TrEMBL record:
It comes from the Bacteria. Pfam families: LtrA. The keyword Lipoprotein does not apply. It comes from Micromonospora luteifusca. This is Low temperature requirement protein LtrA. The chain crosses the membrane at residues 20-38, 44-63, 75-93, 105-125, 137-155, 161-185, 234-251, 272-292, 304-321, 357-375. Keywords: Membrane, Transmembrane, Transmembrane helix.
C-alpha cells in the first residue's frame, strides 16, 4: 500500500528507487571529503571537512524525513528528490572550493535545497495538522540564511569557517528546541508519524555507502602504490578494520531501531538522536579510510602523535558514536564498548611512539575485540533483540 502524500506512513515501507538513486551522489561526496583531507592535512582543512560533512548530512537526513511522509511513486515527488540530488552534486563539486571563490554557489545550493524541499512539503501538507512542521522550517532556514551568506561574503578561510559553523549550529539546534516560531509555537510529538522500518533502512544504507566508499578509496590508493609488503599490510589492515566496523554495526547496533521509533512517545526526537549519533559513526568510517590511505602513503613514517590522530581516531570515533547511540536511543551502556574506548584513549600515548602500521594494527584489534564480544553476547541471548542484560547496563527505565 503506497504512502499517503499528506498523512505520513501507514505501513512498514521500504526505500524507494528514487531514494537509492539519490544516495549515489553521496558516494562522490564522501570521496571528495576524504580526498581533501588526505591531500591537505591541516587543522583548517579538518574544520572545513567537518563543516562539509555536517552540511551534507543535514541535507540527507531531512530529505529522508520528507520521503518518509511523501509517496515517492508520484512523479512530482521524484522530481523534487532529483532536484535535491542535483543541488547536492553541485555542492560536492565545490568541495573544497567553497572556501575559495565558490562560496556563494555552495551556499545557494545548500539553502535552495532546504527551502525548496520545505516549501514543497508545506504545499503537500496544507490542510493537515502537520503543515506547521515545514512552515517552522522555512522560518528557521531563512534565519540561518543570513549567516550562511555572511560567511560566503567574508574573506579568509578561517572567518568563513566560523560564520558557517554558526549557521550550522542554528540548523542543528532548531529541531532540538522544536523550531519555536511566534503564533505557531514549538513542534509537538503528535505532529510526527514516522515509519521506523523506513528510517532504519535508510540509516543502514548510508552506513553501507560510507563503508563502500572507504573500500573503494583504499583499493584505488593501493592500486597506485608500489604494492610492496608494507603497502599490502596497510591495505589488509584497513580492509580488516572496515569489515569489523560493518560487523559491529549490522549485527548489534540497529537491530531494533525500527521498533523503538514506532513505539516512542516522541518519535521525531528519538530519530533526531539516532541521526546525530549516526553522523558520528559515519565520520568514524571516513576517518578509518583516511587513516588507511595515510598508512599506504607513509607506512614507515617517523613516529609521531599525528599517526595516532590520523589512524587510531577512526575506529575510536565510530565506537564513541555507537556508544552514544545506544545510550540515547536504547537507554543502555554496553560495557565492552566503553572499555574499548577507554583502552584506546589510555593507549594513545604509547601508540604515539609506534609506526603507522603498528597503530593501524591496534585500531583493527580494538574493533575486532568489540565485534567478538558482540558475537558472544548475541550467542548467549539468542532469540532476543537488543536486550538489556549481561554486558549491557541499563541507564534508566525505558518507556
Amino acid at each position: 500500500m503506497p504512502r499517503k502524500v499528506a498523512a505520513g506512513p501507514v505501513d512498514p515501507v521500504r526505500s524507494s528507487a528514487v531514494e537509492l538513486f539519490f544516495d549515489l551522489v553521496f558516494i562522490f561526496t564522501l570521496g571528495r571529503l576524504s580526498a581533501t583531507l588526505v591531500e591537505e592535512p591541516s587543522l583548517l582543512a579538518d574544520a572545513q571537512a567537518v563543516i562539509f560533512l555536517l552540511a551534507f548530512w543535514w541535507i540527507w537526513y531531512n530529505t529522508n524525513l520528507a520521503t518518509d511522509s511523501l509517496d515517492c511513486e508520484r512523479p512530482t515527488v521524484q522530481v523534487l528528490i532529483i532536484c535535491v540530488m542535483l543541488g547536492s552534486l553541485l555542492m560536492s563539486i565545490n568541495v573544497p572550493d567553497a572556501f575559495g571563490d565558490q562560496g556563494f554557489v555552495f551556499v545557494s545550493a545548500y539553502l535552495g535545497i532546504h527551502l525548496g524541499r520545505t516549501l514543497v512539503m508545506a504545499l503537500y501538507l496544507r490542510g493537515t495538522p502537520a503543515w506547521r512542521r515545514p512552515v517552522r522550517g522555512i522560518v528557521w532556514y531563512l534565519m540561518s540564511a543570513t549567516i550562511w551568506f555572511a560567511g560566503a561574503a567574508s574573506s579568509g578561510g578561517e572567518a568563513r569557517a566560523l560564520w558557517w559553523a554558526c549557521a550550522l549550529a542554528i540548523d542543528y539546534l532548531a529541531p532540538v528546541f522544536g523550531w519555536p516560531v511566534p503564533w505557531l509555537g514549538r513542534a509537538r510529538a503528535n505532529e510526527w508519524r514516522l515509519a521506523g522500518e523506513h528510517l532504519n533502512e535508510r540509516y543502514r544504507q548510508f552506513i553501507i555507502l560510507a563503508l563502500g566508499e572507504t573500500i573503494l578509496a583504499t583499493g584505488n590508493f593501493y592500486r597506485l602504490s608500489p604494492r610492496d609488503l608494507q603497502d599490502t599490510t596497510a591495505f589488509l589492515l584497513t580492509f580488516w578494520t572496515v569489515v569489523f566496523l560493518w560487523w559491529t554495526y549490522f549485527y548489534r547496533t540497529t537491530t531494533s531501531l525500527a521498533a523503538k521509533i514506532n513505539t516512542a512517545v516522541d518519535p521525531y526526537r528519538l530519530n533526531l538522536r539516532a541521526s546525530y549519533t549516526h553522523l558520528v559513526m559515519v565520520a568514524g568510517i571516513l576517518l578509518t579510510g583516511i587513516g588507511g590511505e595515510l598508512m599506504l602513503k607513509e607506512p614507515d613514517a617517523e613516529r609521531s602523535a599525528g599517526n595516532v590522530v590520523a589512524i587510531l581516531i577512526g575506529p575510536l570515533t565510530f565506537l564513541v558514536g555507537r556508544m552514544i547511540f545506544e545510550i540515547w536511543v536504547f537507554d543502555r551502556l554496553t560495557k565492552h564498548c566503553l572499555a574499548a574506548v577507554v583502552a584506546c584513549l589510555a593507549l594513545s600515548p604509547v601508540a604515539a611512539q609506534l609506526p603507522p602500521l603498528a597503530v593501524g594494527l591496534l585500531g583493527a584489534a580494538t574493533i575486532t575485540t568489540v565485534a567478538i564480544f558482540d558475537l558472544t553476547h548475541r550467542a548467549r541471548i539468542a532469540g532476543g533483540i537488543n536486550p538489556v542484560s549481561g554486558e549491557d547496563v541499563p541507564l534508566r527505565q525505558t518507556r
